[in-house]
Design goal:
Belongs to the CWC22 family. This protein is mainly α. It has 18 helices and no strands.
């Protein structure tokens, strides 16, 4: 039972909160609607101020909702518009904190996975894939995720998946080659094997031949063979990004090195890629396993050293083991070797 006065207080609080969120949404929406390459600097500045004035959770949710509504439509979105929206996320990701990009990325990947499983007719999948590709282009996410998505698409290998592979390779193929040429080579080999073992109806399609030609062009670093490939707009916006990002190490250190599986199971296993992200759920590591792993074999140790460890309050196996190593090693190299073991 909730007494009437408490109920009333809760209702007014909920109304107040709803009103605040509505106001915040209106402000963010206004900024996103005016977004263009020319005013990106001022808009990202205003967004940062909003992040300072409001709770990060509210801002992340509001921004993600508005961007998803703007970019994920049943018709194909213009590439330039897509890039500008992602560039804003990238600037906020580097200047405000990595949870901005992480929240947006998780929402996009989950939506993409959901739509891939359903037989949606529209261009939502392409739009979501473009968002992920540009998040990679603007150093929000590591190539690991892109390879995971490509592997998943290659393993399914239907007409829809072939279309999406082509779309992704056209957007980020040469960047992937620069980042991890070996992984790309393995992916191309796997795709060729799939194409050869696919049924005759699929093999005869010009789409499949075109995809294999595109992959060969990527492997041989031949940009001319890919029709409509133009790295110019991305490069131009990358230069703009460098001027807007304040931290000197804008790039590799803030890239989210997270796999597709981790993102999809974030609710079950927590978000380890966000520093300080709270976790409320089942224990991630089984205690019985950790106890067995902690029994380290260092060799025989004298009772004198054991007594010393007890006096120094080395109260767990792993602490005692490290203490024994430090006390009984001949020199720093010996200690290093033992510690590694």
């Amino acid at each position: 039972y909730v007494p009437p006065q408490v109920r009333k207080a809760q209702e007014t609080l909920n109304d107040k909160r709803r009103e605040e969120l509505g106001r915040l949404k209106k402000m963010v929406n206004g900024l996103i609607n005016r977004l263009s390459e020319l005013n990106l600097s001022s808009i990202s500045g205003q967004m940062e101020e909003l992040y300072m004035a409001n709770s990060r959770k509210d801002m992340n949710e509001t921004l993600t909702d508005i961007l998803m509504n703007a970019c994920v439509t049943a018709v194909a979105m213009p590439a330039r518009l897509m890039m500008e929206h992602v560039l804003l996320v990238s600037v906020l990701h580097h200047n405000v904190g990595i949870e901005v990009g992480a929240h947006f990325l998780e929402a996009v990947v989950k939506k993409f996975d959901e739509l891939c499983k359903s037989d949606a007719e529209g261009k939502e999948c392409e739009n979501l894939l473009a968002l992920i590709a540009h998040l990679y282009n603007f150093h929000v996410v590591h190539s690991l995720l892109i390879f995971d998505i490509l592997k998943k698409l290659v393993s399914t290998f239907t007409e829809k998946e072939i279309e999406l592979i082509l779309f992704l390779l056209k957007n980020v193929g040469f960047s992937l080659r620069k980042d991890d040429a070996l992984a790309l080579k393995e992916l191309i080999t796997e795709a060729q094997r799939k194409a050869n073992t696919a049924d005759k109806k699929l093999q005869d399609q010009t789409r499949v031949r075109f995809m294999l030609e595109t992959m060969l062009a990527l492997r041989n670093n031949d940009m001319r063979k890919i029709p409509g490939y133009d790295p110019e707009p991305v490069e131009k916006l990358r230069k703009l990004q460098r001027t807007l990002v304040r931290s000197s190490g804008s790039g590799k250190d803030t890239q989210l090195r997270v796999s597709l599986e981790s993102l999809l199971s974030a609710d079950q296993v927590g978000r380890w890629w966000i520093v300080g992200s709270s976790w409320s759920g089942a224990p991630m590591i089984d205690d019985t396993n950790s106890k067995t792993q902690q029994k380290l074999h260092i060799g025989k140790v004298s009772s004198k050293i054991m007594e010393l460890a007890r006096k120094q309050r080395m109260n767990t196996d792993i602490r005692r083991s490290i203490f024994y190593v430090l006390m009984t090693s001949e020199d720093f190299l010996d200690a290093f070797e033992k510690l590694l073991k």
